[in-house]
Design goal:
mainly beta; Maltoporin, Chain A; 22-stranded antiparallel beta barrel; 6 helices; globular
Length: 684
Amino acid sequence: MDRVFTTLIILFLLSFPLLLHADEVYKLEDIVVSATKMPEKRMDIPNSVIIKDGEDIRMSGAKTVGELLANEPGIDWQTYGNYGGSDQSIHIRGMGADATQVFINGVNINSPSLGTADLGKIPVENIEKIEVVKGSGSLLYGSGAMGGTVNIFTKSPTKDKTDLKVSAGYGSQNTYRLYAQHGMFLTKDFGYYLTAGKSATDGFRDNSYLSQYDASVKLVLDKGAPINITLYGNYIARRYGMPGVKPPDGTRETAFYNSESANLLDYSKDKDGNISLEVKGNPIKQFAYNFKGYYSNMLNNNYERYASLDTGTENWINNTVSGIEGNVSIYPFDGAKFLAGGEYKDYSWKNKSYDLVTAGIRTATTDDDAHIYTKGLFAEGEYRPFKYLKAIAGIRQENHSAFGKENLPLFGLVVNPTDTMVFKASHGKHFKAPTPNDLYWPAGLYTSGNPDLKPEIGWHSDITYEQSFLKNRIFVTLSYFRWNIDDKIQWEPDSNGLWKPVNLGNYKADGIEASVKIGPFYNVELSLNYTYTDAQEQSREYTRQDYGWPPFIPADFRYNLVKRRATMVPIDQFKGAVTYRTDFGLTATFTARYTGNRVLYRTQSTVYPDTTTVRHTISPFWTADLKLEQRLLGHWIVSLAGNNLFDEYYDTHLGTFIDVTGNSTVSGYPGAGRSVFMNVAYEF
């Protein structure tokens, strides 16, 4: 941590004398939609907010949404090693990936069976804007919105303008990306926006390949303020290898593994399709409405082989989600707003599993399915009695078919001492139901669901200070947050090695987020942020039967373990970026990230059954990236991105490697070494 604070101090001191020549960049007047489901100024929202527009996305050089948001305070970007199809998720304020709900054009894309959203799937070229609202979002978004929400808005056609762009890129590990997009209005009111892309890579180690196709279409009927109708659909198909951990040094090559990859035969396939219809409008000053219907189909095929047994499993998981939602906003008088709405979601989960014997031949088949629905009714009121103060209060009633009803209140306060300063506070209850995988996963040799799970319930509180200086030339944010979760759900092995989900006793955290954005000054922009998270978890109570203790121990005996540091949550994170723009169209961005160490437990208990290897630590690491972009002749854009410039070796997660003899070793999922990627785009 000494290196982190030293770096922060140096960067602040270097930036200070340059402030007087900045131009306007960041504003408290930026409009945010997702925090209240209707457009609001940033300074009127009680939550801490991150906003990334199309220019931010393009200049970042990020190839995925997770990589883009990795530079923001309070966000921990995690992958299972940077191989082609690696799951990419963000963890907000120390909560798990399933505590963040991700939406594209207002439709949730989290996998119902996993509870998480894979941000590596989403093409960034089609994104117009991203809004991240931190803090409890359960009032408006229901189950799972505990750490925050990520709302992605795709590009729309613009009247009196034709948007046509093609691009091609190639880089290390035989990685390439081809992409095209086109949008325009055909008539005064009707327009469309089309995208199509193809990506592939060999990956940086064996069996880490990816092949992906993606496409989307958006049709818009824009009648102005009274009514706007949008039909949006997208489709993603991909296949990718699943290399697993890196085996220990000296591992001999077999048909199942080698010294680079624990799994040479494992792979996975995804086919995701979504369609939504949205009707919204603001026909009069005192009234606005928004209604949406949607349908999603997510198909995953997962193929795994076990070296020690020469057997395996193949799973086909199909999730379908359909739903409708709507809300109306009423503005009865100046300073007052009332929002009311409802939502209905219907989930269908099907799991078809095959046992695999020698040479991957299918034998026994099991079919499992489940049907879940949720209903939510919510209302929220806002009142600003005078210029400097605004109060918010609301409540949601969530009705879950498996767990019954839960009331979720939220309270917020916004204080605006000046037009450039705001203090925010929010306090809300959150809720997350177990997923179908948690509840109904078929029992096998190594895994099993747990139908006795309880939902996670808790509270999230935060206080945020935001201020702009020198006519928006400097933007500073500082947040303190605290949250707790009862009955946290976590997959862990029991004393027999069977992995299944269990409820922990308690999970909580306190933390601080600090960031400053400065510039441009002398064509330079600077961004610095630091996040401190103290997350603790406590195991559930154990009974005599859980431990297998002898009969002389009373049957009603309970033993509650002491608290421990939370799994996979870094205490310290630092991110810094500096951008330099020349007068002849060249832009250079250098980014550095520090992630503190993380711990991982192989069992729920710190004392049973293994007291020596139950806890493992992932070492802290630094990475640095560089992006160069040159615009030529008004239409051409040439970019060159270098990731992990100093070829830092680091692990992203830990897992177990099992050899052909059955011996097991805890090993890491390695992050990728140095790589480069060059892209050429032409805008018509």
